[in-house]
Fold:
Amino acid sequence: MSDDPQRRTAGTAAEQPQPGGPAADDAGLAATPEQPTAPEAVSQPAAEAGGPEDAAPGESDEPVAEQAVAEAPLAAALREPDEDSLRLAEAVVFASAEPVTPRGLARVLADDIDADAVLAALRARYAGRGVELVDAGNGVMFRSALDLAPRLRKVIESPRRLPRVAMETLAIVAYHQPMTRPEIEHIRGTALSQQTLDSLLELNLIAPKGRRESPGRPTLWGTTPEFLAHFGLTDLRQLPRREDLLLDTAPPKPAPEVLPADLQPPPEGRGE
Structure:
């Protein structure tokens, strides 16, 4: 054995496989790192990451999908009114002294029950019965059927009617609101007693609506939701027109027919 460095170098060079030879095929794993694989390594992450144009749709698809789910209408998750919801709504409307609104009813219903659908189903259930669900003010109430009113008056005392002066005052306020007390007195042509004003306030038919920006800052008066419910109205636009409330005046008398001068009879006492 010889430790000559030149012989070791020659032997090592002889043992190395030559390009294209059979030894190179057997040592494929050793030759692979010597190939120019840098561009492939760089291009592969770029292909996986995608360019700016390819990344934009991928990045926007997921947020758009999440936004569509978040903005989906809640009505799709609502279920149909069940018997328990109808019974509960029936009890609320029956026990309430004021018209029941869908918002007020929704407070006692389940979160997945639509209050408007419950009221619609309850209205259909009571249609044609002796007691019906009718619109009153800004909500609904139970009231007896209108066609039964003549027979009900035989056994049920009619509510006390408002005095004439109170009805006149209430009509003026309803058509001209908001208005002050001096304005009411000006239209009526007479003074308004405090008793009449107190009676309308006690029945909750009128209420203060602020103050007019004028000397003395007089109180402005207007009607209330109780006024609409009392007269079976849902909106002030349902009030009859003021022209329809005016009394028909007597027809004018026909003017006497005027005869021509040559046909008029001669004046008395001038014939002689």
